[in-house]
Amino acid sequence: MLETERLALPPPDPLDLPLRAVELGCTGRWELLNVRGAPESTLPHGLPPCAPDLQQEAEQLFLSSPAWLPLHGVEHSARKWQRKMDPWSLLAVLGAPVPSDLQAQRHPTTGQILGYKEVLLENTDLSATTSLSLRRPPGPVSQSLWGNPTQYPFWPGGMDEPTITDLSTREEAEEEIDFEKELLTIPPGFKKGVDFAPKDHSVPAPGLLSLSRLLEPLDLGGGDEDERGAVGQPGGTRGDAVPASPCSAPLARTSSLEDLVLKEASTAISPTELPKPLPQEQWAIPVDVTSPVGDFYRLIPQPAFQWAFEPDVFQKQAILHLERHDSVFVAAHTSAGKTVVAEYAIALAQKHMTRTIYTSPIKALSNQKFRDFRNTFRDVGLLTGDIQLHPEASCLIMTTEILRSMLYSGSDVIRDLEWVIFDEVHYINDAERGVVWEEVLIMLPDHVSIILLSATVPNALEFADWIGRLKRRQIYVISTVARPVPLEHYLFTGNSPKTQGELFLLLDSRGTFHTKGYYAAVEAKKERMSKHAQTFGAKQPTHQGGPAQDRNVYLSLLASLRTRAQLPVVVFTFSRGRCDEQASGLTSLDLTTSSEKSEIHLFLQRCLARLRGSDRQLPQVLHTSELLHRGLGVHHSGVLPILKEIVEMLFSRGLVKVLFATETFAMGVNMPARTVVFDSMRKHDGSTFRDLLPGEYVQMAGRAGRRGLDPTGTVILLCKGRVPEMADLHRMMMGKPSQLQSQFRLTYTMILNLLRVDALRVEDMMKRSFSEFPSRKDSEAHEQALAELTKKLEALKEPDMTDQLADLPEYYRWAEELTEIRSLIQRLVVESVNGLKSLATGRVVVVQNQEYHNALGVILQVSSNSASRVFTTLVLCDKPMCEDPQERGLASSDVPYPDDLVGFKLFLPEGPCDHTVAKLQPGDVAAITTKVLRVNGEKILEDFSKKQQPKFKKDPPIAAVTTAVQELLRLAQAYPAGPPTLDPVNDLKLKDVSVVEGGLRARKLEELIRGAQCVHSPRFPVQYLKLRERMQIQKEMERLRFLLSDQSLLLLPEYHQRVEVLRTLGYVDEAGTVKLAGRVACAMSSHELLLTELLFDNALSALQPEEIAALLSGLVFQSPGDPGEQLPSTLKQGVERVQAVAKRIGEIQEACGLNQTVEEFVGELNFGLVEVVYEWARGMPFSELAGLSGTPEGLVVRCIQRLAEMCRSLRGAARLVGEPVLGAKMETAATLLRRDIVFAASLYTQ
């Protein structure tokens, strides 16, 4: 058998051997295994073996087959090691902050150190995560620039810091513990506790009472004397509060002694008068810029900065205030020289070795300012979302959003800050980003001075007054309306070489509007249209024409301007597509010389050399280069950023002769032209087409005129179709610019950032917003008035409401409620269609206001203004005993008895009847009667107007007046309780719920008023007047308390709704404490709820980095679009999941009462660039992306840039919640996005 095995043939193949050779790594060692199989080697042909998993080996050995374990062997079982006792470890003391410091004592004259003394330090336990004080220690060096979302901001300037008592009181108020029901009676672990149930107590036996002691406090019989003294004896004990009537006229006839008493009492008690407010401190101080500053160099012998030119007067005034460390608001026209003020502040900060922050509304403007200031001051840095240059510099340039983030995160840069310069302040009117400016202004600490630079605005003083009250410092307003280069405005109607001279002056440099020029333009247009009709028919073109007509218009215009040497020119066109069309249509136009072409070519070569080869061959790059060589340029948001910068630089050098731009070019650095042309005076603002606002027109027209080069600037409005209306042109060119208006709104980021700091309240932020300024600026006067009314109320004696007067308070409340209900019903009647139809000329009404009490009147005329309807009415009245209408109204006022309240006890003249004509508001009409008189309103009004002249005052009334007065008097006598009136429901057919329910409630109140007992008491009139005065004071006090409280805030309901959303999502708890999800949301700049929910739902963890970036593009892309059908299934599912999460958040918002539907919230997501971003992150060249979407290249670049910033924010959020894998993916996604032309460095930073 052994011989047989020995002589066996070898295996035909090495794989049949019962052995396997395995190489152990790269060490050159091999090992034979008794396993049949192919030999393995190192990479790339195979992998080295790895040791078996310890967990699997342990499970196999001890859990799957434990039979081999010895039953009685305990040597390897659990054991206990004896701990070595170390009592000295209990004596370790943690380090504590040093409570004192050494302070040098110096000689007051020489400064020589004389000695040292130890001083105690306060608040040594402060830190960046517990305190808002500037005295807290700095945070980590790595967080000194941007801060950290977990750090507290510094205390906002102008806001009172709460004391320990205030904080404890606030916490107790927020807890809202019910001490009746929520007390714990049984401690944990006990079976019984404290019983708080009421116990029966034994009542002591009744004893003897002294009747004399019981009657001692009472003054039996004194009540009648007091009443007699109050009514008939002004000098009595209670008569001191009832002085004699100030009216010296004799008393009118009356049939009741009670009426006489009422009139005396009513004139005795004066209505509530508010005390005069305290003289308010002036926070906004206007500076006179008309008088020259002759002693400028005496006041500032060594300026911090000097220019090669002499500063203007307004610039010198601003510099003087900067030297005094004052805050200034400089409002001036474009190119007036506001940057001089900013430059001096930067130089001043460098001199003081402090820091300055220059904020701008857009990142492109920040880059431009960095280049300009870097050339002037070397120590300048730039901070944007994707770049940091010289963050340690004395002057930092950033967008307002960056500064807001630094303020909320407690950046230590704020400590050294001396100036914050806000450029383009009128950008606060932006509906989307204006709130950021208000947040920053509110959150700035007290030691920071503010410089505001803006175009001319009509309410600069109001805005400065708000900031002054906000920061409790004076703001000096420096406004100048003078332009350094005056402007001339023209209308151009030409469209051919023959008509290129049709340029008509409309507004000259002195501000005179020329109607002759307007009518000349109209005639020129009419003449051309008539010739067109003779040639092509009577039909006249009403539109502005197509590309061919536009080309003819611009060729004729540019030929005229070139002849007049009025190039370069900026053509403002309010559409990206029209900009490209108009520039591309001028193929035959060449405006540059050979030397200029050479300079343009070299500049383009140098700038485009930083791009990769395929990017330099992009269609937009080639087309823009061809235009620039001919002196043409295009500038709008669809242009690639690097191309926009090339166009701007060439334009500033004078090499671009004609620039077609949108209105964004008007905001930014000083790039003036010789001429500005408006392609149209109408634009689309996102919702509808409208005419340009005066502020928009002035901002763009201000680009005309180069200071020091042009005597005047030229502004031309093209009239391609009909000439615009003269009124529209006058309003646009000479109207007032738009006022600075608050765009303050609540955001979840703002709410969470403030809720995480106990000492700050969202209500305080809302109180200090510009939107609340009109109602909050009189707070001090309200507080003073409240204090005075409190003293007055304490001085008043309580009215006697005993016996029959027990229901006097209820009677007063019934009467007030009935009056309010009737006023509400009457207002709804007057606002209704049928009510307005009934209030026509001749209708008899009942008039009730301060001057007339239930007096009949007949309507003579109704105004046509529906917003503020006025009814001119002839009203019955007495012969006036005094000319003062307030005294007339006071004399006619009465104590309301049931007959007065239930019906209309009409006014009847006591003596000779007279009449007057009054202009009534809708609220003055107490009732609409069913009676209609035939009156001649025009004659009556003419007669009344005539009698206002002294010489016709005693003329007898005309027949129309006499007839109307007699008819009204007859109705008043025939219906003393009031004539029949129109029922709102039955006659006027009003079906409003408020009208129906109000009518039912009014009838119920009338029954209660009829059954009141207080009206039968002889003391009712005087006590009612006393009660009314007291109640009026209390009502005014309640109104003032409401105005001073948080309940009067306009956005308070929305704040509660948003907090409820955060509470539902788990971002804050019931006590308002911010939880982990809320702290994550604080780090997001936009879509904070959606991003946080996606993070906590693990919706992104399973995706690849390029897929995550593609999905997140739907949150930053702002143009609507369809994601397309070519997306991978993973992306399609991801889009659906993101939309599902957004829908869930929208449903929660809608359930909490927010005024935003689910469709509107989900509609904010636009997934039109998902495929583009996905392919870009996978490495596709930018030149191939154009075929995937029709979106302009500039918008694609902007989306990817914002997307990279969002990925960085999510990276930090993922690390905060302990998701390092997702954080690494977000870092990878940001890296994949940041490449090539999309993130080419700005030319301004090179």
Low-confidence stretches: 1-7, 201-279, 536-543, 881-893
Instruction: Assess the beta-strand content as a share of residues.
Output: 5-15%
Shape annotation: globular
Percent of residues in helices:
40-55%
Count the DSSP helices.
44
**Major β-sheet profile:** 9 strands, mixed
GO molecular function, one term: hydrolase activity
Protein name: Helicase SKI2W
Catalytic activity: ATP + H2O = ADP + phosphate + H(+)
Pfam family, one: MTR4-like_stalk
Describe this structure in words.
The chain has 44 helices and 27 strands. The radius of gyration is 42 Å and the shape is globular. The strands form 6 sheets. A 9-stranded mixed sheet has the order 5-13-6-12-11-7-10-8-9. It has a 7-stranded mixed sheet with strand order 15-14-22-19-16-18-17, sandwiched between helices. It is an alpha/beta fold and 1246 residues long. Mean pLDDT is 82; it is low at 1-7, 201-279, 536-543 and 881-893. Strand 11 (417-422), helix 12 and strand 12 (449-454) form a beta-alpha-beta unit. It catalyses: ATP + H2O = ADP + phosphate + H(+). InterPro entries: Beta-barrel_MTR4, DEAD/DEAH_box_helicase_dom, Helicase_ATP-bd, Helicase_C-like, MTR4-like_stalk, P-loop_NTPase, RNA-DNA_Helicase, SKI2-like.
